[in-house]
Write a structure and sequence with these properties.
The protein has 332 residues and is α+β, with helices and mostly antiparallel strands. The protein is 30% helix and 24% strand. Strands 4-3-5-6-7-8-9-10 form an eight-stranded mixed beta sheet, with helices on both faces. Strands 12-11-13-17-15 form a five-stranded mixed beta sheet, sandwiched between helices. A two-stranded antiparallel sheet has the order 1-2. A hairpin with a 5-residue loop joins strand 1 and strand 2. The radius of gyration is 19 Å and the shape is globular. Bound molecules: 2,5-anhydro-1,6-di-O-phosphono-D-glucitol and manganese (II) ion (2 copies).
């Protein structure tokens, strides 16, 4: 183990990468402390009465879990006072959240999915927090338009995964590094530098129950995988689907694979299932920074010009050669 704490790592990164300003460093440190607090709440589970529904819906018409709301509140509370942000946006808030005027204002915008995979929370399966940092374009008062920047404009992206251990995975655009929470010390410790995704894989992740709704390129691709060594791919594939994007992406960053949440006839009207700004973009930046690829099936996700705060997109990401194949099938 490196013994390098997240704080020490950030100070070192700041020295070597001029894009990491003191404010950006502080943003990541305080996101990490919010994630520790979220991890504690999740860890108490039934003992603290935090499982189950909150009895409300978010703007996407999804029932909110108590922990969706708790995690969102923790992020807002931790982040609003430190003078680095101009505004925040979250899956769980209809509108953007401007930093109240009693607090000092900064230049950055923070976007997050406070609790990803929340359908898994009541059954004690890994969940996570996804975040993305943008810089606002000018000195005018922030509006939602400031948030509608392509993924290529992200200055930092990352997630925390609350699994058997709590880990935090980060990129500032110079590779992807992974930290593990030392619960005794209460510190994230650097445990892996420069994660790399193998270009080829034998593992795929897709919700097979949607099969009858898929478009034909997805049908063809999955059919070929299922034929295994007796089909055109001439090798057997294995399937994993955690249904927490964070956990599925973490597996792919760790050992490769392809993850797909394609658009289908059920989700065509809304554009897909996953959200562009606080799910697909940060995950795409991490995947690309680790040598993988990420597309909608047709175009690179990071190049999309967002139109709406809660916009949804189809997602195909992971091992480069598989993502390129799926994208080729769509464009043929
Ligand atoms: P969230 O819990 O933030 O709404 O996200 C859930 C997402 C994602 O984590 C996962 O990949 C997908 O929804 C699971 O969808 P299915 O239930 O259709 O498998
Ligand atoms: Mn999510
Ligand atoms: Mn969520």
């Amino acid at each position: 183990m490196s013994g390098i704490t997240l704080s020490r790592y950030l100070v070192e990164q700041q020295r070597n990468n001029p894009a990491i300003t003191p404010d950006l460093r502080l943003i990541v440190e305080s996101v990490a402390s919010a994630c520790k607090a979220i991890g504690v709440a999740i860890g108490k589970g039934e003992l603290a009465g935090v499982l189950g529904g909150a009895g409300s819906e978010n703007i996407q018409g999804e029932a909110q879990k108590k922990l969706d709301v708790i995690s969102n509140d923790i992020l807002i509370r931790t982040k609003q006072a430190n003078g680095t942000l101009a505004a925040m946006a979250s899956e769980e808030m209809d509108e953007i959240y401007l930093i109240p005027t009693e607090y000092p204002q900064g230049d950055y915008l923070l976007l997050f999915d406070p609790l990803d995979g929340s359908s898994n929370i009541d059954v004690n399966i890994s969940v996570g927090t996804i975040f993305s940092v943008l810089k606002k374009a000018d000195d005018n008062e922030v509006t939602v338009t400031d948030f509608l920047q392509p993924g290529t404009a992200q200055v930092c992206a990352g997630y925390a995964v609350y699994g058997p251990s709590t880990q935090m995975v980060l990129t500032f655009g110079q590779g992807v590094d992974c930290f593990t929470l030392d619960r005794e010390l209460g510190e994230f410790i650097l445990t892996q530098r420069q994660m790399r995704i193998p270009e080829d894989t034998k593992e795929f992740a897709i919700n097979m129950s949607n099969q009858r709704f898929w478009e034909s390129p997805v049908q063809r691709y999955i059919e070929e995988l299922l034929m295994g060594s007796t089909g055109p791919r001439e090798k057997d594939f294995n399937m994993r689907w955690v249904a927490s994007m964070v956990a599925d992406v973490h597996r792919i960053l760790t050992r490769g694979g392809v993850f797909m949440y394609p658009v289908d006839s059920k989700t065509r009207e809304q554009g897909g299932k996953l959200r562009l700004l606080y799910e697909a973009n940060p995950m795409s930046m991490l995947i690309e920074q680790a040598g993988g690829a990420s597309t909608t099936g047709r175009e690179r996700i990071m190049a999309l010009e967002p139109q709406k705060l809660h916009q949804r997109v189809p997602v195909v990401l992971g091992s480069k050669n598989e993502v390129e194949r799926v994208t080729r099938y769509h464009n043929e």
